[in-house]
Amino acid sequence: MHKIQHVATFIAFLSRYEIRDPHLVEESVLKTLKERTDFDNYKPRPFNMREFYDRTGHDIKEMLLSCSYRGMECSAEHFKVVTATDLNLQ
């Protein structure tokens, strides 16, 4: 459940921890959403961006449809993941 709590406000799902526009949601769905967004006694573990990225990120080989740099074709092998650590942004 901590995923919802951490990202819900960023995607406008929650507004002050209340479900937005409940009149647009089917009753059974609204009930489930209310249960899953009840954070009154919830103690989330600390958010870890690396863990979140590893679970939700996509492999560039799956996403790159075509690539060209200065007129030459390139591929996923020409890219690498760059983290804040690589950039000394800790």
From TrEMBL:
<protein>
    <submittedName>
        <fullName>Acid-sensing ion channel 1</fullName>
    </submittedName>
</protein>
